[in-house]
Each structure stands twice: as structure tokens, then as C-alpha cells.
Amino acid sequence: MHPTSSRPLVGVALVVGSCLSLPFGAAIAAQLFSVLGSWGVTSLRIGIAALLLLALVRPRPARWTRQQWMAATLFGVSLAAMNGFFYAAIDRIPLGPAVAIEFLGPLVLAAVLTRRVVDAVWVGVALIGMVLLGIDGLVGADPLDPLGVVFILIAAVFWVMYIRMSARVGATIPGSSGLAVGLVIAAVLLLPVGIPASVTAAGDGQLLLLAVLTAVLSSVIPYSFELAALRRLPQRVFGVLLSLEPAFATLAGWLILGQDATPLRMLAIALVVAASVGTTLGVRPSRRSAPSPESRDDDPPGVFTGPVPLPD
């Protein structure tokens, strides 16, 4: 297969990998809330992820332009707020419905950016799945806490910001340097709420190990994968592919946290998967010429027409 034509498939695989990794990391993190608090776990996870990425990537931000610094800073703000409010939400409501409600953010983004009728149809199918998951959370055995719903809606807004800023970072900063610096900025913003959790975890090897595992599964792997995927897929396709995440979140909640998967929830998952498959089958590479041999795999843009141009 020609390297150019394989890039969309690689992008799809990266998004699926992210959807697999993140909810299982969140399920592990939920087990730490009673000891460290949701915001404390968020701070600890982001801080550990930032240290790991700094060691692996070794960014050189001193050479960055003002535009690159602005992109990385806004990226860091979105990371801190999105993760903080998400963890605050799943401390109050089940993981599956929480991810389903949060997905309203990127779902709306995908609907706004879509340019084909078939894409809008698949967005509608995914939206029906989100609604069913929400209904299941309201009438099922685990009623949704109102404050938890508010927290997850706030997280949904910052998830949209994360997608937009992730695309901008991928387009303006080569490699994973933007991700590493963004995580550092997020870690600094969360530091005031994370100091007590860090002190507690430092004195308990098991807590620290779980925190490191959470950081790898919930930050290092998914964010690296998503940043690379956004270089290969338009944001509208990326957004709908993320509809796989509620399905994996429900699975993680069931396997790790013992949260039941009801028939209504399983129907919702089937709709979500159908939308994701439909969108994936509709992905077509552009007719641009192949990149030169000197161009690196992480050099934006990909062979797609995206990422969709961002406003100034």
C-alpha cells in the first residue's frame, strides 16, 4: 500500500487506540478519588504525564514563535479544565453516561464542520446513541447527580477547545513538543489543588503506581495518539470517530468499576459503533501529490484536506 493512501487508516487506528486507552485509565483513576480527591488525581496524573513527556520529547520552546507559544498555552488550559471537570463528574456519575454527555462537545463540533449529507446522517445516528445513554443514566439503577451533569457539560465545552487547540498545535509545532509543553502548562495550573494529593501519593507506593498507570493510559497514550491522528484526519472525521469512546467507557466501567451495562445502554453502544464505522468507511484521501521522502511522518499537514483551517 502506498504510504500516502495508508495515512487515513493510520489516523483511524490512532483514534481507536486513544478510545481504548483513555476510559480504562479513567476507571483506574476513579478508584483513587476517595483518597486523593478528583482534582488531586487530575493534578497528579497531568504532572506525571508532563514529566514523562518532557523526558521522552525534550522540547526546545525557547525557539518558538509567539504563535506557537499561544497555541501551546491554550492547549494547556484546555487540558487542565477538561480533565479536572471530567474527573469531578465521574466522581458523581457513572463513567459510561459521563463520557456520552461529554461527547456532546465534539459531536456538535463535527456537525458544524461537516460538509457532506452522509456525515450529518452519521452524526445524527451518534447523537441518538448519546441520548439513549443519557436516558439510561436517568431511569436506570444509577441516577445522574445534577452537579455531576453540570461538571461534565463544562468538560464538554473544554473538549471542543482541546480538539481545536490540538489541531493548531499539531499544525504549528513539529513532533510532540507542543503536547509536552501543553501538559507542563496544565500541570502548573492544577498545582494549587494537587499539592496535598502529591504528598499523600509520595508516601504510598501503591497509590503512586496507580497514579503513574493512570497518567500513561489517560494522558501520554491518548493525547499522543490524538495529536498524531489530527495530522491525518479532518477534525469532522476525528470528532465522530471519538464516538467509540462511550462504548469503551461503558466496557471499562463494567470490567473495573462493576457498573452494569443495561440493554438500553447496549443499544446505544451499537448506534455509536455504527456511526463510527459509517464515518470511517466514508474517509477518502485527497488527490494531493505524495510527500517528498524528506518529509517526516509527524510533519503537518497530512494528505487529507484537514485539519480544518482554524480562525485567527
Structure notes:
By secondary structure, this protein is mostly helical. It has one domain (8-281). Helices cover 76% and strands 0% of the residues. The protein contains 13 helices and no strands. The chain is globular. 54% of the residues are buried.
Summarize the topology.
Elements: H1 3-30, H2 33-36, H3 38-57, H4 66-90, H5 95-102, H6 104-113, H7 117-139, H8 146-172, H9 177-202, H10 205-229, H11 235-241, H12 244-257, H13 263-281
How many strand elements?
0
Q: What separation lies between the terminal Cα atoms?
A: 37 Å
Low-confidence segments, ≥5 residues, pLDDT <50? 286-312
Based on secondary structure, the structural category is mainly alpha
Enumerate how many helices there are, as a single number.
13
Largest sheet entry: none
Write down the overall geometry: globular
Query: How much helix, percentage-wise, in residues?
Result: over 70%
Tally of domains: 1
Radius of gyration of CA atoms, rounded to a whole number: 19 Å
Overall average residue pLDDT: 79
Output the helix-strand order: HHHHHHHHHHHHH
| Percent range for β-strand residues | under 5%
Task: Give a nutshell description of this structure.
76% of the residues lie in helices and 0% in strands. It is an all-alpha fold and 312 residues long. Helix 6 runs antiparallel to helix 11.
Could you list some keywords that capture this structure?
13 helices, mainly alpha, 312 residues, globular, disordered C terminus
